[in-house]
Amino acid sequence: MDFSKISAKKREQPSIDPIEIFHKSKISDQHINDLWLAQGDALREWHAARGASDIGVVLNTGAGKTLVGLLIAQSLVNETRAQVLYACSSIQLVEQTAEKAAGYGLSVSTYFGGSFSNDLFHLGKAPCITTYQALFNGRSRFFREDISAVVFDDAHAAEHLLRDHFSLQISKANFPSQYSEIVELFRGYHRDIGKSPSYDELGESGKLFFIPPFVIHDQIYELQRILSEARLGEVTATTFAWAHLKDHIDICSVLISQSGITITPPVVPVQNLPYFHGRARRIYLSATLGASDAFARTFGKSPDLVISPATTAGECERMILMPSRLASCEDDVELTKQLLSDRKALIMVPTYARAGKWAGFAVPPDREHVTEAVNAFKAETTPVKLLLAARYDGVDLPGDTCRIMVIDDLPMGVGPLERYLWEHLNLSNTLRTSIASRIVQSFGRISRGMSDHGVVILTGEKLVQWILVPRNASILPPFLQKQISLGYQVSEQALAKVDLSAAIDQILNREEGWCNAYEDFMSNAEAEERADDVDVLTKLASNESKFAVHMWNRDYGSAIKCLRDSLDDAFLVSASTGAWHSLWLGYAYDLSGDNGTAEELYRRAHSAQRNIPPLPPANTSHGTTSYPEQVLEIEQLFIKRPDSTLGTPKIMGTGLVHLKGSGTTGQTEESLRVLGELLGMTSTRPDKEFGTGPDVLWHIEGMPALCIEVKTNKEIDSNYQKKEVGQLSDHVQWVKDQTGAADIIPIFVGPLKPATSTANPPNEFLVLGLDQFQQLGERLVATLNDIAGAALPLTLRALVDEKFRERGLMWPECLKTLESHVLKTLK
Question: What pLDDT score was predicted for residue 112?
């Protein structure tokens, strides 16, 4: 060894100003001449506030956020001379980001596949680019590092990745014995609540069963035994989630499907991870951090500062087409296949099951070969198709690599719990910002800058309906809202497939007529005003995250406070949101030893949202008598006291007060909803909760549904207008689509006035005065009081059945006791 080459080097004090770092870098990327204005603004604003713990940086797709993030990461390395991480959502993006860093003249380490590329990260000289998976898995090597900062690139992608790493998957294929044992473990509960036939169909259907936490608690030792015998910590597919969950199974959700069992917390306790406490700083890069509630739900809190420099980058020219708006369209997917037969296109679907709609036209690549498929597609000049399932980020196809994209169906239900919350609990208000984020990301896959242009085709009625609801549209970027409005008008004007095909050609050829019309529309169109419930949604999301952390740490008292103080707000957002919070608040009380309050909250949860499973009956020995579902639901409403006496439902006292006509339209709707709930129905306010559908909906599976439009504020001498009749017709169709009810009873609750001569109401449209529901409510209250005074828990079910039949309160017979009028025959 030649020791003469060894010498002490003077330590230089590196700059911490990210713009100065950029100017000193030896840039080799020929596309980089200088920082763009928005990049410089973002870096200056971040540098001024760099000491804050949580800072969001919002830059449109194509606005150069990767360079901004890498400069911030290097600045933090220079300041702390410690370990700084830069997180990406996939290995492909780690490699892509490292390649960009080299072009920017920035040194980095990378970590994936269990290996570091060099020592710069540990020497405190450069950030380490790695995956979210490497950070979040239950055995992350970074838990042992002294991390001084983390830059989360595409921060919107963290939500489902965090959930994945806190989700234990017991697949039927890989763990057949354990799967069968767990299914059997909960069979008795479903028998006790009268759901045994549905549970028996589990093996031959796509059903999803949510096991409530109080049932898990009763079976926890046996469940833990089954899981322990599976040696999950030794299996690659389960070891990382098992490390997170093995000591917390009793405070998780359990969901059972035909293919497997998922165990996951109701809210991921992200703030327990070491990157989210102590002295670590966090920077969140994204194009869609505007949804503060989705951000709080993912990361446990709102950022201290959101930097969002004004920029037009990413605001590319788009035509958004909706084939389903054609009057002649019977199947928008089939019509789209015809439009794309000789065109290159990217097709994005939410699930592999939905990919089946495109069978014979395009096939999704295996999960392990998505990167190769994307790269091959980029290079193709022929009219090939790339079909991607559940992949809304990490795919960049700018310019001529792809000009046409299809977004098929609503991007929801990424995992079993989210699917349950969306499809079974209808938490559309709570989840709509997460859905909006995925939609925005989808649009960015083929659009990288102002000079880019392309066509986006929207298919699937759920997606089209969702995106056209003003409250949903209001949380999308204003620029995208205008493009959707333009595309809707174009799609409405098209008379046939040939018109849509011609429109696509005009757009891709940049014909003058299209360019002028586009510029004029975008200059004059107005975006929707942002929904006014964002603040309360953010508060609820923040409280959910705090609740999760306290529950994880077994601090039940603090957990109770998090949800108890905001429970009324949760019910204001929607009955389903309040029900979900009631369930978990009840469980916190249960674990703290207050069983009485817990049971009261469990009953409230089930009565507000029937798809939240109920407490099992106090005594399940009911012989062979079979009772209607309505009776079983009403039984759950009664409060069972320790002395074996019964109390009437708490909502009964004040919940019906506005049936007297003393309240606003909204208060009247809520009293009608409560009346349906007390009658044992699934009773909701779809228009309030979804932004579409009837004012009030009563429904029991397999029975007629009642579709109610409330017109109590209508002028006493005003007839029912054509618009009102058309609206009720639309809502009848919505109920049919959502519930599958074969028989729907449409009614107006309001003045007994006829329809106008142009309204043409169908024969089945009814009008009832509000006083009829007041009388029904009074009869119901008297019956419930009588039952509570006479029954014991053991005899409650039989007495409910007897009294409700005796007093004409069974559904739908009770409707026949009310004085109704056929709208068409009113004079």
Answer: 93
- pLDDT of residue 488 exceeding 60, the answer is yes
Task: Give the tens place of pLDDT for each residue, 401-422.
Answer: 889 999 999 887 568 998 899 8
User: Could you tell me where the beta strands, DSSP code E, fall in 106-153?
Assistant: 109-112, 115-116, 128-131, 147-152
What does DSSP say about strands 682-684 and 696-699: parallel, antiparallel, or unpaired?
antiparallel
CA angle 502, 507, 511 (to 5 degrees): 95
Query: Between vectors from CA 165 to CA 161 and to CA 168, what angle results, nearest 5°?
Result: 130
Q: What is the pLDDT of residue 502?
A: 93
- Burial code (b: 16+ CB inside 10 Å, e: under 16) for 234-267 equals eeeebebbbbbbeebbbbbbbbbbeebbbbbbbb
Of the chain, the percentage scoring pLDDT greater than 70 comes to 96
- Mean pLDDT of all residues in 582-586: 97
* The two three-digit tokens of residue 240, written as one number: 């990382």
Neighbours of 601 (CB within 10 A): 25
Of residues 449, 445, 447, the one with CA closest to residue 407: 445
Structure tokens at 737: 């689509």
Answer yes or no: are the C-beta atoms of 265 and 418 closer than 8 Å: no
Q: What is the pLDDT of residues 506-541, one digit of tens each?
A: 999 989 999 999 999 999 988 887 766 778 888 999
| Contact between residue 344 and residue 383 where contact means Cβ atoms under 8 Å apart | yes
Q: Mapping DSSP to helix (H, G, I), strand (E, B) and coil, where does residue 78 land?
A: helix
Parallel, antiparallel or unpaired: strands 168-171 and 639-640: unpaired
Distance CA 573, CA 465 (A): 21
Output the six-digit token pair for 304.
């201290």
Rounded to an integer, what distance in angstroms lies between the CA atom of residue 446 and that of residue 213? 43
| Distance in angstroms (rounded) separating the CA atoms of residues 332 and 563 | 43
CB of 108 closer than 8 Å to CB of 129: yes
Measured CA to CA in angstroms, residue 165 lies from 161, 238, 245, 444 at distances of 6, 9, 10, 26
Mean pLDDT of 312-322: 80
**Alpha-carbon span 33 to 768, nearest angstrom:** 71
What sign does the CA torsion over 141, 287, 485, 340 have?
negative
Structure tokens at 605: 């949860």
Where are any strands of DSSP class E within 370-494? Answer: 385-389, 404-408, 453-459
Rounded Cα–Cα distance for residues 39 and 662 (Å)? 57
Q: Is the pLDDT of residue 28 over 90?
A: no
pTM: 0.80
pLDDT beyond 60 at 313: no
Lowest mean pLDDT of 389-398, 503-512, 733-742, 815-824, name the range: 389-398
Summarised one tens digit per residue, pLDDT across range 358-392 is 999 999 988 778 888 888 998 999 999 999 988 77
Q: Is the dihedral of CA 180, 181, 186, 191 positive or negative?
A: positive
Long-range contact set of residues 354-359: C-beta below 8 Å, sequence gap at least 24: 354/389, 354/408, 354/409, 354/460, 355/387, 355/389, 357/333, 357/408, 358/333, 358/387, 358/408
Beta bridge partners of 257: 208
Q: What is the DSSP string of 407-441?
A: EES----SSHHHHIIIIIS--HHHHHHHHHHHHHH
Instruction: Give the pLDDT score at 577.
Output: 92
SS (H, E, C) 814-826: HHHCCCCEEHHHC
Q: Which two tokens stand for residue 544?
A: 């959910």
Contact 351, 413 (CB under 8 A): yes
Residue with tokens 């940049």: 510
The closest alpha carbon to 57, from 228, 394, 342, 308, belongs to: 308
Residue with tokens 């696509």: 504
Contact indicator for 820, 767 with CB cutoff of 8 Å: yes
Length of the chain: 827
Give the residue-averaged pLDDT of 99-109. 93
